[in-house]
Amino acid sequence: MQNLFKRAILPMMVSGGALLWGASAAVNAATFVNLGNAAGAQCATTGVNDSGQSVGNCSQDDPSANGEPWYAASTAGPQQILPSLAANQPCAVGAIANNGSLLGSCADASGRNFAVTWSAGTPSGAPTKLTPLPATFLIPLLRPADVQTAATAQNQQGAVLGLSISGAGAVTVVLYMPGIATPLRISGWGDMCRGAVVNNTAINGYPSLLLNCPVNGKPVARVATRGASAYSITDLPLASGATACWGVGMNDLNQVVGTCTFPTTPHQSSKAAFWPSPTSAPRLLTLPLGANNSGVAVNNAGRVLARGMAPTGFTTDFFWADTTTSFGVRPIAFLPGSVSTRAFSLAENDTVAMDCTNSNEYATACTWDPINATVPIPPVSGGLQSTLSSISFSGTYVAGVANDGAQDDIAVVAQLP
């Protein structure tokens, strides 16, 4: 499952049990829709949902001015500027959920930054400030109130996983349920854990959470699930022989993808890891020649997006459909004449959102799926470059930025075929 608030070698094909290097033709390309520059001189889209609603940010032609966050109700626009938390203070928007909840950050009148939400139903309304943990008097004794918040993930119902930040910079993982601005503490006070995913399945009325915590100088992946009255936290099992594991994605079945490291000679190695449940031993992706690899994302079908090293020294992305074996893992092909892709998200329909380079070495927005392979999205208005920032949960829309013939940055959205 993709994190709504987070962004992230030669092509290969499987034949006779070996990974062979080859190429793939692009077909059925989507078309970018130019969302314009009504909110500023240079614009980019940062999020899109399954309804084609999108959000993004624009910089102004006055270099001393704050950027403007915006919302567009459809691919036809228009960009509507989102209000700030305080006059003359900056804001930015990063994601939009399927329920129309917009997630971003704003500075208040004191200049401190806070996670905020807006609503697609009333985009002109003031943002909701997600507040930090209050002071405690007994447990822990005389702990002062935290002073800032930051968001790390959002689910499709608008629940927000975030950080409450103390005046000394210590962070605590907190959860904000949809429409509620006060935090529910998840991790230990100031334990420096980080939230990675809040999923969409309610257990006892609350979503499950993936977080990573520092323990004795090493990361530990943990899943928090709701009991009758409180969250309980389970440490994911280490892979046999691993020195550490961490999680990057979790689906609505509480299946987790991440990476484990191993102290092999002469170099430390890494492998993508898939936990079928929070108490199961992880399954590991093994590539030819023991190539290093890592997990990127997982969807509700349990299919995994991974990234690994090729013998050429380039990196490549992989689609790992059957995690019970490494035999059928599919390398994601480069565009013809290119040696680069960087995938960052996997949608429910198995579409991968990624950035490629073309044969002229320009950045090019691309998608991949098991049927159509790697497909570039043509640039707009005479431009030569484009990148993606988001794919909707079901894989129906992608969004990002493209430059036009004047080399201005244009906010764009595309509906996928």
Walkthrough of the structure:
There is one protein chain. The chain has 417 residues and is mainly β. Helix content is 0%, strand content 47%. It has strands spanning 12-15, 18-21, 32-34, 42-48, 54-59, 68-72, 79-81, 91-96, 101-107, 113-119, 128-129, 148-154, 160-165, 171-176, 184-185, 194-203, 206-215, 218-226, 231-235, 244-250, 256-262, 269-275, 283-284, 293-298, 304-309, 315-320, 330-331, 341-346, 352-357, 363-369, 373-376, 386-391, 397-403, 409-415. The strands form nine sheets. Strands 3-34-33-32 form a four-stranded antiparallel beta sheet, with no helix packed on it. A four-stranded antiparallel beta sheet has the order 4-5-6-7, with no helix packed on it. Strands 8-9-10-11 form a four-stranded antiparallel beta sheet, with no helix packed on it. β8 (91-96) and β9 form a beta hairpin. The radius of gyration is 22 Å and the shape is globular. The two termini are 21 Å apart.
